[in-house]
Design goal:
Blueprint: H1 2-29, E1 36-48, E2 51-62, H2 65-84, E3 89-101, E4 109-120, H3 123-135, E5 140-147, H4 150-178, E6 184-193, E7 221-234
Antiparallel strand pairs: 1-7, 2-4, 2-5, 3-4, 6-7
Length: 242
């Protein structure tokens, strides 16, 4: 008898759970007297680029693979030593390649290449270094790019965030007035930035010169944007008088 009572209690409890869940789902589909509006606001500023990036490479063609590699290795070692001697310049080697070239009516040869990545906040020092590496060490300039440093970007984003939040609040207040409510409270909010990371130098042909002239640079600016998007939960709308 006690077992039957226990089983009956379990069945009744399960039925209550299902009934409660169904009721909750039904309530979520009903219209609410508190409108929830999604609002987006942003703030943008042009920030001066304070980092310069240069990509150079040493390349050699030779029927002897060892000779081609020795040529590139020696030039890159001199270039890297020269770069590391310049205060404020960060230097690293990248992209070492070696492959065989076979063309009609031409002897087979090996092409070896290695790249040197440089970056600095001192545009004048890096420009002078790039000129020397092209003219003295025989490296080829593949590309120049500029960016905003992490510290400068974060500082700009902090200021823009406050502007974007104030604009979001103003729009929320306007929405509340438009719906005829006295105010709103903030729901879920996200804050996003356009931080895409440090740009990589782009490979471009035709930038080399046998006797390189001084490199002329202009850093320019980068656009920094902060966007605030979220819910404004409006106050209850008073029922219309009958």
């Amino acid at each position: 008898m006690s077992r039957r009572i226990a089983m009956l209690a379990v069945v009744l409890f399960a039925s209550a759970i299902v009934t409660t869940a169904d009721a909750q789902a039904l309530l979520e589909t009903l219209p609410t007297s508190q409108p929830i509006v999604t609002i987006t606001a942003s703030a943008t500023s042009d920030v001066a680029n304070d980092r310069m990036h240069a990509l150079l490479h040493a390349e050699a063609d030779n029927p002897d693979a060892v000779q081609a590699a020795n040529d590139v290795n020696a030039r890159m070692a001199r270039a890297l030593a020269r770069a590391k001697a310049v205060t404020g310049v960060d230097a690293s080697t990248t992209a070492y390649t070696s492959y065989q070239i076979s063309e009609p009516n031409r002897p087979m040869r090996w092409r070896v290449s290695q790249s040197l990545a440089l970056e600095s906040s001192d545009f004048a020092a890096l420009s002078s270094l790039v000129t020397k590496l092209q003219g003295t060490d025989g490296l080829v300039l593949s590309g120049l790019t500029f960016s905003v440093s992490t510290a400068t970007r974060r500082s700009a984003e902090d200021a823009l965030m406050q502007q974007a939040i104030r604009r979001w609040q103003q729009r929320a207040e306007n929405a509340a007035r438009g719906f005829g409510t006295a105010g709103y409270r903030t729901g879920r909010v996200t804050i996003q930035t356009n931080d895409y990371g440090r740009p990589q130098p782009m490979l471009k042909s035709g930038m080399a010169a046998a006797s390189a002239a001084p490199v002329t640079v202009e850093g320019g600016t980068s656009e920094v944007t902060v966007t605030v998007s979220g819910e404004a939960i409006l106050d209850r709308v008073a029922p219309a008088p009958r």
